[in-house]
Known about the structure:
Strand content of chain C: 15-25%
Structural class of chain B: mainly alpha
Oligomer: heterotrimer
Number of helices of chain B: 11
Number of helices of chain C: 16
Radius of gyration of chain C: 24 Å
Shape of chain B: globular
Amino acid sequence: MAAFLIRRLLQAALILLGVSLITFVLLYVLPADPVRQIAGRSATAETVENIRRQLGLDQPFLVQYGRFLAGLVQGDLGRSYLQKTEVAELIMSRLPATLLLMAAGIACELVLGIAMGVAAALWRGRAVDQTLMVGSFVTVSAPQFVVSLLLLYVFAVELRWFPIGGYGTFAHLVLPAVTLGILGSGWYSRMMRSSMIDVMGADFIRTARAKGLTRARVILRHALPNAILPIIAMIGIDIGIFMGGIVVVESVFGWPGIGQLAWQAIQRVDIPIIMGVTLVSALAIVLGNLLADILTLFIDPRIRLR
Amino acid sequence: MQAALPKGKTLMTNAIIVDPRRERGTLARLAQRKLAVFGLFLIVLVVAAALAAPLIAPYAPEEQLFDGLTLEGAPLPPGGAFLLGTDLLGRDLLSRLLYGARTSLVIGVLANGIALFIGVLVGLTAGYLRGWVGTVLMRFTDLMMAFPALLLAICLSAIFEPSLWIVVMVIALVSWVQTARVIYTETTSLAERDFIAAERTLGAGTGRILFRHILPHLVPTIIVWGTLGISTTVLLEATLSFLGVGVQPPTPSWGNIIFENQTYFQSAPWLVFIPSAAIIGLALAFNLLGDALRDVLDPVQRGRT
Amino acid sequence: MTKWLTSTALVLTLALPATAQDYVPDPAAKAGGSITITYKDDVATLDPAIGYDWQNWSMIKSLFDGMMDYVPGTTTLRPGLAETYEISPDGMVFTFKLRPGVKFHNGREMTATDVKYSLDRVTNPATQSPGAGFFGAIAGFETAGDGGLSGVEVVDPLTVKITLSRPDATFLHVMALNFASVVPKEAVDEAGADFGKKPVGTGAFKLAEWTLGQRLVFEKNAEYWREGVPYLDQVLFEVGQEPIVALLRLQSGEVDVPGDGIPPAKFTEVMGDPAQAAQVVVGGQLHTGYITLNVTMPPFDKVEVRQAVNMAVNKDRIVQIINGRAKPATQPLPPSMPGYTTGYAGYPFDVEGAKKLLADAGLPDGFETDLYVMNTDPNPRIAQAIQQDLAAIGIKANIQNLAQANVIEAGGAGTAPMIWSGGMGWIADFPDPSNFYGPILGCSGAAEGGWNWSKFCDAGLDAKATAADSMADPAKAAERLALWSDVYVGVMDQAPWVPVFNEERYTMKSARMGGADALFVDPVSIPVNYDYVFVK
């Protein structure tokens, strides 16, 4: 196991290096000039060139990338071009909110998705199954903005159960987490359903039932743990989505997550922020997938390390 | 439900229990399933609507009609001269949906299909072979997942002329990774099951094991990802269009109709809910058809309903 | 400067006490209370040498002061930290007498040395100030660096003398820009690159708290040098909020002013409800939305083609599409800008006339081109309306719907034949007609990377513009404005732009907010002038 971990962590470092290189190349060829964004609309050509020189953006690609890596090794992600703040500070100020919402959102997805998936599998072909099937397609196809705002409107504005957006208390967390849970539950429930159906047909379940165990016990103790395998892989995927793709939910609920930071930075070519956020989310994704692989090993002991 | 089978029987042996219905043709059996027929009907309907859009659309999709807006500049609700209402520029929503089906079908079926194919291929190969091949494939998958797709989209948008085919490429490029992850995990587990080990000891080739024995077990997962993927790719197209990669205004797609109008969902709900219903309908139709096909073709699952 | 206070015509001395300025305090105004403002985008920096977004512009105005200022709610200049100022007869030397006893937020008294330091700092290339170019008229600007500006001299602790290298009629406006704010050296040195996060000024408010990505708290500066203001004890800014949600929060009493305004999707709803409409203040703003036609790219190198495009665009329909939030425009300058040519009709909406002009230019069948547009609502919609109008005269314009940075890049590089300016349009830095010319219509802006996206460069007009800006004598103000009016009419004759509309400002406020309407559509402090509004 230790050797496996070390190998995977080394691979992770390589992946991060690859991601940073690709991102750097993209930003280098991107036809949008960060210096123009810094210099502003009234700047003279001399001012523009001067800023470009100061930031080292007049240097060849390899020199720029080398400098970035040198900084990275020392834990320095640089300073935002436009916010003039340390990128590490900007990211750290938003990371806790992102991780909190990610954890709560995934928990909601799991609870909703597993419950719906198991119900659909057990009542396969019945009205419950069909309703849940339609429901999962509706949630997956629904525009995030509309769902977020509808929930906010009903539960915060009309019923006043929760605050209208913001960050800080548990009450602030509920609506965005539930929104994410609903939006993502379709995937989990469909996967859970098919996995449950597969497992329920397997021999060891038949055996358990033949031994006279109760239906509830068979489902909870035998079927569920075995059916959960694909769900684990999906959590790893979800981490990737949550690290960058929930800008809409963040802005509707006024949640100070990394998504908004990244989105604004991309629009304004703030290269240090883009690089920093990309690396942090890449790290989360790589570690998430590693965690998923390790969990898979524990859940299904038949899979051996190779 | 099925009767309990004696201990020790592998899943594979289930295939031996021959269903009498198997004697009939696949199509005939499919036709017996009302839901499958309904799904097929919906798909045919959407394809026909997309192809016949110039014939059946009441207006040109990009025509901003003078009487399509109120004096204050608000869109018109469904009814009257505009069956499904008008959009924020006074264009006929029905006509836009009909033409938009063309783009959305290409994305939802073709781009999503390519992504699914790559994802299954990579996940299956990496999950079964593991070793260095698996490691390289899966670490590459991690890399693709960790890499900023939006930035790639913005870059491409500035380098290439925007076109539908670039969107298809970008969507295929970024969407296969999730499928690959899930298929990989399931394959690693399947590969260790007794019946696969048995096949191996009997000398079955890798290809045969992969495609004859493992793949059929992955069909339910493939259907889930393939059908839900229709919705997500159609919506992803709208985001890419927003960044300048995709079809450019005024060309409609279901995704960009929703995207353009979503902030107006309270004052003009038809502009969001009708195209959303179209996407849900299309994805569901494929799901119904896929489920039925699976039941008809899959030796393991058949007869269990 | 030997003729100190001699020529009444040329020397403008405002030796007025602070209370006699043309701003009349609101008798209903009450001190105390806190208001909440929201923004979608994060606040970038509060360093006055750097901040150049419309959000932080008004925030910096409340934290800092410069030599000059504007009468709240107007575009009229008034002295700020300068108690009086004098302009030499040739308009080349400005002498500012500082107000004594003004203290920075850190308690130290502000002196002439701080003024010099601040101007040296903003023009030092190492500062990377986007506003450095505004100070180009100060002597020694070209060699500015760590040595400072040779044209700025400390005469005594309360007197600063600024010598120009060329006459600049807009110099007092320049001294009212945020970039000219006075900052204390020790605070800048201590904070280093983080000064934008730890601002110290002389303004009506001081920064009490800044939680990155969430909120900023401004607290009343009890020792503010202006009598009686600010009224508010605290201003709370919350960032990262969707405009629609901000409006919902306003309706439920949690927000006082949504900084991003009324979202387009809610505009008809709000304005259609008399109770809510009563909370909206409408005013003009120094903004024009326009289409640039790249005069270096055929067929836009032909003036007939550009005129035809001007005649083809149905501006009334575009205004209707944005729910009437703007007025159709005829010329580059907005109506509330001095120098606006009243009575100039511009190009009429005339499809047949446009077709005829195209035919005259040898393009009876039209042509195909690209229209660049920034991708945020309502700009793609406006671009599509323009597209349809152009199609009516045979021009097929393909829309390039891109992120802002990409559009700006294409515009600067001169690769975009047509650009709809929406979302990036020019909002004046200061209320003077010159501000709409140099960077966006003059030859200097037409260089590679400049903001003159038409790449329009007319030596004759440029000379006229330079002449106008050299008329620093206040007595010639009317003559100068007439000259500027000529310049813009001259621009329109050559039609490098299609001026489409002038956006109106709609500021929504909570019912408890008090203060004259003008403060809520303040042309300089957007969305509101924090120093003068109050809670009822």
